## 1
Amino acid sequence: MNKRLGILGAGESGTGAALLGVKQGFSVFVSDAGTIKDQYRDQLKAMPLTWEEGQHDKDYLLRSDLVVKSPGIPDSAPMVRDLREAGISVISEIEFAGQYTKAKKICITGSNGKTTTTMMVYFILKNAGLNVGMAGNIGDSFARQVAENEKDYYVLEISSFQLDGMFGFKADVAILLNITPDHLDRYDNSFTKYRESKFRLLQNMKSADHLVYYADDKEITNELARRKPDMQLYPFGFSGPYEQGAWIDDDIMKIVVHSKEFNMSIFDLSLQGKHNAQNSMAASIASRVLEIRKETIRESLSDFQGVEHRLEPVVKVHGIEFINDSKATNVNSTWYALETMKNQVVWVVGGVDKGNDYTMLFPLVKDKVKAIVCLGKDNTKLHDVFDDIVETVVDADNMNEAVRTAYYLSEKGSQVLLSPACASFDLFDNYEDRGRQFKEFVRNL
């Protein structure tokens, strides 16, 4: 009799897991408590499996041998608790797919910069002619790609939610970008638990594997000193030089891997700013570990185009520059955005607060922000924090109002920055929806 695979959630990861489960001979049951999107419903209908929406058939799911859970479903969900209490293994789609591929896996996590760094590494490896896929928290799911289009290399952006469901998975190259407070609502408001989740990326790695990490992040370096991991270590940051790793010296990015040095002017990087220098250093080390030619890395980092919704220039209207940073869903990400701004800023902020501590933003806000537009259903906390720091703090109920208000509060030469520091789902479907609405209404000014 076929083993029974239960799948919770029928989005991209759940549908991809279903595809792979069917291919591997499982008897598959997909269950989504909400409404399944048409594109995924059509795919499920075309597969030899059972599925449901609008509920979880508990009795059916409890007959599973294994359950794959969508990262959007918390471990505290009653169905997840019931499954684990019944002794059924509940894993992430990344864990499941990892069991069915022999490909080398370059895995990236961190509170900020994951998507940009993942896309950079993928871009470099693709330019080098490697048979490479990009998955995880971005694009087509890892399971879908393993099922339909197996690669020799995968570059995986992995969130803490995905890491929580990973047990036997092993990265060949792990990149740990930074650890700052985020998603604490999912971790009992415990930063320690969140940090532990990020460090799951290192589990099962061996002495021949490679860890690339940001050496200026004390959370990372203190934890590494405590754990003393047995693998190849490559620090990067602004405090070099390092025996091997990456650092900046007089505006030159220096990369040393396998005792071979590679240099590149930071002014030749297509993406400017301190945070992008960090991402470029991490991507360069990972690429050199995989023995990608220096010239390929240099050309790729000169040509690379940024990520949509991450410090994305939209348009100038009457000398006012509009910048879409909707992907900034935490305070640290917004800190990088404000730090990059060159002129006086009208800042559009707000949404679903994830236990944010805004104090780290105070020096930048005092220095650069002339007005704040609060975009959320409940802006009380933003007013409590910023009313005494910024003279003009106003509310907007929707994106059209936010864009128009920011425009009227601006003057020629200033910048309007959408960098919400919050989740989006009070007023928008997701951060992409928020960013696209921003761009649409800016272009309609």
## 2
Amino acid sequence: MRPWLIGLLLLATAGCVPLYLAYPTVDHVAAVDLTESPEEVHAFRVDVLDQTNCIDVEEHDRYTLSPLSLKGKNRVPGQTQVALDSAWIWHCIALCFEGQTKHRVLVRLYRRGYHTITLSSAEPGKPLVWQPAHSAREQEQAIDDLLATWQTDRTLQLYQKGEITGSDCFRRLAPGSTSASHRAALAFAIEEYQALCDRVGKEEEALKEKIAWLRDRRDD
């Protein structure tokens, strides 16, 4: 059991009363140099709200994207997030409920024709290695990875990554009304999916479903 939960549990044993804990956190993704074709790279900050609750309590993860301006730059600026994380426990003698809300920041780098790169505080100094996305499916996966929210979605984690299809892979995206920058990021992804459809000469059902879902989310 987590250390902070032990303390809360000891306090909660006095009665069936929910207890809450909040604490400040800082997450930082270091700046990185673009040494290869920087004019082709699109960078996005991703603010993640990750809820981890017991199985009886629904989770509401939320991912918000913001394009980062790289015009005339060969470097992606570092990104910092200062937040207030929280945890709760409700001990009712025979039953015990618990949950935690965490915040983190990511940077995702998209380059058409290559796999998307994700940078996080967990891998400082991670080298940029652009892996070509040769097939149409690989290029679709690169756009999926730009938007992906399944990594913190425990329901979808029951499946392997390759088995997550359609808009399920990014169903935790915030609505477009969250901010103008997030709406712009969704519009960019829609354009990339549509451009892929044009290149392959047809619209497969999975692509059409993703485009329709994203348009609805953008206008939400």
